[in-house]
Amino acid sequence: MSKIKLIHVGLGRWGFDWAKHVYPGNSEVEPVAYVDRDPEALKRVQSQLGVPPSRFFSALSDALTIADAEAVLVALPLALHASVAREALLAGKHVIVEKPFTQTLEEAQSLVGIAEKSSRVLMVSQNYRFFAAPQAAYEFVREAWFGQLHTVQVDFRLNAVAEGYGHRHQGLPHPLLADMSVHHFDLMRMVIGEDPVELSCRAWIPRGSPYKMPPCAVIVLTFPSGVVVNYRGSWVDQAPKTPWAGRWQMDFEEGSLFWTARGDRPMVNRHDHMSIRRLNSEPENIDLEPVLKYDRLGVLSAFAIAVRSGTAPSFFPSGRDNLSTLSIVEAAIKSSLQGGASVPIETLH
Length: 349
Hints:
Elements: E1 4-9, H1 13-22, E2 29-35, H2 39-49, E3 56-57, H3 60-66, E4 71-74, H4 81-90, E5 94-98, H5 105-117, E6 122-125, H6 132-143, E7 149-157, H7 167-170, H8 181-192, E8 198-204, E9 216-222, E10 228-234, E11 247-252, E12 255-260, E13 273-278, E14 284-285, H9 295-309, H10 319-337, E15 343-344
């Protein structure tokens, strides 16, 4: 099967990481053009990755005219996601958008409408779905091996300043809830198999923090079945950092499931861990079946399947599905601005 030819838009830190670490390891997608307004970003791709200048463009419109491509990947700052994805969809291209999807639900719903009307694939790069532990946790819940799930604890912590995150990160609007917790909200939906119906969120800026908006939050989310999730997230925690997907404890009628995913070297497929503890028993480690296409390689593989077959594979984060993830982000921000008031969450997909 021939590779899907793709125009890559955005060569900042994360966009360049796609070009350097992800595309070379995949067999389904081939970048045929790179777009960025910054000449230095294009020079870096040319000098470090050996991409010929003929593949560089300063505007998507130029790349769409010249490059022979079926798809576009948007790895730009959030404020530009909607306009660039819209341009690509209206040009008849399939689209992958980096998370978070868009700034507002209204923008996201508009893009979903365009994609569905034109029968184009619109995917959000919720790459944490494509790891062994969350996929195994999904099966554990479905099979009810320990009975019914009732409570979930999720902890994410990392000292971003100590890790070298700079002023740009500290100036992001909602650096935790919109930029990081969106991953965890999406995993909650995937693993539990439901969308939450309400939440309460307290978010704050600790004393002495360089962040302009809250890097810390605690959230309680309630799901239709009665499952309650207690979530804690922090970009300034002094405790040992968690893996990027967080540390999960899922409590059932007859025992508990513990798991983590996406460790320090996420593009190495051996950093997921899972264990169980039956009632009145010692913990037992679980051997996880490796995911052959994981992280962003899994994103590209799933995207290629959807484009070629017209059918979404398992765990596929379509634009429509991601509306519900984005609705959690909006509800969490709204609740935090209201001092932790309970806020209903609209189910949209």
